[in-house]
Amino acid sequence: MFKNYIKIAWRNIAKRKTNTAISTLGLAVAFTCCTFLFLTTAYEFSFDRFHDNKNQIFKVYNNYSSPVNNEGITRSAAMSIPVSPMLKNEVPGIEKVTRILNGESGAMYQNKEQSLQVNYVDDDFFGIFSFPVIAGNRQAPLGGIGNVVLSEYAAKKLLGNEDPIGKIIKVKTGGDWKDLSISAIVKDFPQNSSITFDVLIRSELNPAYTANKNDWNHQDHSVYVKIKPGVTRDVVENEIKPLVKKYRAADIDEMKRLGVKPDKNGDVYTLKLLPLSEIHFDTQIGTGSVTAKRYLYTLVLVGLFILLIAAFNFINLNIAQAFTRVKEVGVRKSIGAGTRQIFLQVWGESFLVCLLAVIIGITALTILIKPFNQLLGQNISLRHLYQPATLLYIILMVFLVSLFAGGYPALLVSKLNTVQILKGTVSVKRPGILRNLLIVVQFSLAVLLMACGLTVFRQFEFMRSMPLGYNQAAVISVPIDHPENGKHIIDELRRRLSSQTAVISITGSDINFGLGKDGSTSTSSIGFTLHDNLVRTNLLTVDYDFLKTMGIQLKAGRDFDKSFGSDTLRNVIINESMANKLGIKDPVGFSYLTDSSEPRSVVIGVVPDFHLYSPHKKTAPLSIYMAGNNDFLSYALINVNTQNPSQIMDLIKKEFKQLEPNNDFNGSFITENVDRWYKKEKRFSRVLAIATGLAIFLSCLGLFAMTALLVNQRVKEIGVRKVLGASVQNLTALLSQDFLFLIVTGVIIAIPLALMFLQSWLSDFPYRVTIGWQAFALSGAAALVVAIATISLHTIKAALANPVKSLRTE
């Protein structure tokens, strides 16, 4: 019996080659696209879930009331050194605590230096996170201050095939080299880990540890805690509150005195816990390369939209085809076939088409996975496709699509009256409400995606091309491997390149402009009280010729100058936002105290606001200081003549290799760095562009097949009308009007939906485009033009056909 069902189903599928090909192609394309998008989303949501105690691990962050934003709440993940012992020793609900501070990039074995990521952590690190120790001390890998732990990658790079355990290596700490003993090797962190490292050493080795171990205001690292089993986050946060009031009483009193109001819980300042499951998605205080959940939810919706459009095509075609089989159904019923048997037969054909489409889709995904990853900047592996959850999703998708697409028409034809079928009194010519509804929804989704895609692309282009306040195209940024020697390296680079006409000027800074190839980013800021007001300013340390190299014009005052010895002490250049914070009309010459242990800062110049950080955030107050001999400079900035960019880059690389032989040269133009700021927007706009193209393609594919079926049903009517004098234009308009009305309805419905989505999406950007009518007009017009062209392929052909032939057709 089952074999007979399959055989008949296959014969029916093969008999309707065109419609079967359209349905299979549409579903295969949709399955390929949405499976990749779902895999992408699933991969992002898998971050940090490999840790054994993931539900007990939290990141500590500052939560304090502030007039900085509309909500009056500011969050910061930077912690001071005394926080960790306080949490571990005085909070009953906390079991383990570790600091994590990014150190320098340097480790050496037998005088062979390698660029490796060094992190300062505490001995509880391995009791919190599940990074398996594969060799050495498994109980307490960092039990001694003289111990160092390496990843597999770092061990291989440093020692090759030697047994690493017990070997002495040198690790760079604050410009010095420390001899440390390798106590353990850990398995390389997985790709879906927010916490990354090559070399782990104890926090006490941080050069600033001794000076700042009792300083509650010096905040420069993250803190993670593991709470005890059965204890909730709320309980621990309530246990922390009185300790914060105890140790930060002076700060809290000062904030209250300055008029800072408590939050809804009555706190001016406290410490809170962010679950490990959220650190990959929190764009403000998250860890690593964070991804906002709104992007992931949008990817899921786009995938669902594509699948829905393909499924609606399939449903419409199945309904139309099912009613062309009424005589077959009547004969089957007359010889004893029941409703159940008819249903299974028709639904079985749909299931086979879906199964075939999935097989084609998985094959296509296997072939296209690499280009997809390159296009969208992902790192999805095919192994994710064969996870139990993914396979269950695929099986469920096949079942549901085939059930909806084939089940409804199967149910309709299986309930038809046998006598009416055999008499030929079943009418199938009038379009059904369901078919019309599905066409409207299809084109609504297509126009929605197109309008959103155009606006997202405009926003991306706007941000990428907006003036940032400095020279991008002609400045090369090069990370310095030994920032403690940064000032010397920049001076030497000036001397070596002084004869090169292609080099205009050279400077340095402790913060990169844009996101460089090294992928590092940092923020330095300080807060102080001035005239009973709280002032917080970002800090930037630079070398001479900074303004000249970056093309930043002074609005008032002067630049740093070697003839002024005081410039390397506390003289400062500020931006306009900082000048407004100071509340001085002409701030040049004004001095203020940021720290009682430091000399007063004297303003020598004012510059316009520029985007030191991504335009995802508004420009903030900025203070620019001149680097002294003991200050770190992490980046060389070189203004060049860009007539031959590759040649000048090779020249700079050659000189850097002589100054830093072990440096993996990562120089790049700032234009490239700025583009990396917008990686997520770029990916998002690409996804929407691909989705829009697929949505239009699939909608028109279904429209093409539906028009063909409609024309075939009205062959005789077309012949009669043509004999009675109807023109080609009349007949084309007659056959097209129903579809065009549905498409226009879909466009009208899509516009307010797109408007709501775009208003919500754009609200996250401080600098954004306006939502113009052009995107909606262009999307609607494009959908109509493509739809009319698709419909016309059949309607004009039918209108031009010989009416005699049409009337003789049985």
Describe this entry's structure for a reader:
The protein has about 800 residues and is α+β, with helices and mostly antiparallel strands. It is about 50% helix and about 20% strand. It contains 24 helices and 23 strands. The model has no long low-confidence stretch (mean pLDDT about 80).
Précis, in short:
By secondary structure, the chain is an alpha+beta fold. It contains 24 helices and 23 strands. Strands 15, 16, 17, 18, 19, 20 and 21 form a seven-stranded mixed sheet that branches. The chain has a six-stranded mixed barrel with strand order 4-5-10-7-9-8.
Specify the helix fraction band: 40-55%
Largest sheet: 7 strands, mixed
Please indicate the percent range of residues in DSSP E strands (runs of 2 or more).
15-25%
Bulk shape: elongated
| Overall strand count | 23
Mean pLDDT: 81
Structural class: alpha+beta
Radius of gyration: 34 Å
In whole angstroms, the N-to-C terminal distance is: 34 Å
Number of helices: 24
Poorly predicted runs of 5 or more residues: none
Task: Name a few traits of the molecule.
6-stranded mixed beta barrel, 23 strands, 49% helix, single chain, elongated, 810 residues, alpha+beta, 7-stranded mixed β-sheet
